[in-house]
Structure formats: C-alpha cells, structure tokens
Amino acid sequence: MPPRLPAGKRLAVSIGVDFDAEVGTPRLLRLFAKHGIPTTWCTPGHTLITFPDRIREVIDSGHQIAAHGAYYESEPSHGEAEERRRRRPACP
C-alpha cells in the first residue's frame, strides 16, 4: 500500500534517532528549520515526562509529537514469559 502524502508531495522519510535530548533536540530543530522540514517526533512517554521543556520546543517549532509506549526497552532481553505478560493487556 503506497503512503498517503499531502497534495503535491512525493516523498516521506523516516529517520530513527536516539540522542541526548538536551543537546540533540536543539541541533535537530535548527537543522529542520534551516531546510524547512516539518517533522513528527515519535516519543516515548518517559521522554515526554523527563524533558517537557524540549518537547515544548518541538511543538512550538511547528512539529508534531506522536507518543509511543512508555520506555525504550529491549524486548529480547525480557525472555518469552515476560514478553507475553507485557503484551497480554494489549493483545488478548
């Protein structure tokens, strides 16, 4: 299924970035502003709570926030039983 892009747009890009929010956020915001790139930041709930001022900068710069999950976690490190337990509420 092809992506649904805004009228007149032909390209969508997804970039995964893990960085220090205090340093990386301002750098990325300057880069996106310089090139006029609108973005959506898929951000864990923990980051929303821990760095509210940085999240506000993202929003105030005209970008979107899309929350996903609470934390970044390495699923394989949990083991099968723990992975199943964590998925149970979301996947009956």
Walk me through the topology.
Elements: H1 21-35, E1 40-43, H2 45-50, H3 52-60, E2 64-67, H4 80-87
Features:
single chain, 92 residues, mainly alpha, 2 strands, 9% strand, globular
Approximate shape: globular
How many separate helices? 4
Q: Which stretches are low in confidence, meaning pLDDT under 50 for 5 or more residues running? A: none
Strand adjacency order, main sheet: 1-2
> How many strands, which pairing sense, and closed or not: the largest β-sheet?
2 strands, parallel
**Mean pLDDT metric:** 81
What does this structure look like?
- By secondary structure, the chain is mainly α.
- The protein has a domain at 40-71.
- 41% of the residues lie in helices and 9% in strands.
- Strands 1-2 form a two-stranded parallel sheet.
- The model has no long low-confidence stretch (mean pLDDT 81).
Describe what is shown at a glance.
By secondary structure, the chain is mainly alpha-helical. The protein is built from 4 helices and 2 strands.
